[in-house]
Amino acid sequence: MSELEAHFAYNSARLSGGDASVVDQLATCLRQGPLAGRRVRLVGHADSRGDGEYNLVLGGNRADAIQKALTDRRVAVSQLSTTSRGALDARGVDESGWQLDRRVDVLLAD
Fold first, then answer.
1. What pLDDT score was predicted for residue 5?
2. 3.60.20.40, 3.30.1330.60, 3.30.450.40, 1.10.10.60: which CATH number matches 16-108?
3. What is the model's pLDDT at position 56?
4. d(C-alpha 13, C-alpha 34), whole Å
């Protein structure tokens, strides 16, 4: 399992401008690097605040945002799938921990 080092603001699925280089590197890896042609699963996460259903939707929106950013960088949509864990794996108890919970994991799918 690999964690994409792009984290999201509270209550947001929008990537910040500073995350573009991370997404660029992942896209290059999926197009022509060691993961060329491999399928990956993008798993969205949320911090523990908010109700369970909301957090599942928010995690899904975050995974979808990464998928869109990758397809915008010419990664084949057939290489990507998305899902959400919401706050199921959240461990944060304060802002520094919650920030780490608001992420997308990139997992090899095959």
1. 63
2. 3.30.1330.60
3. 98
4. 28
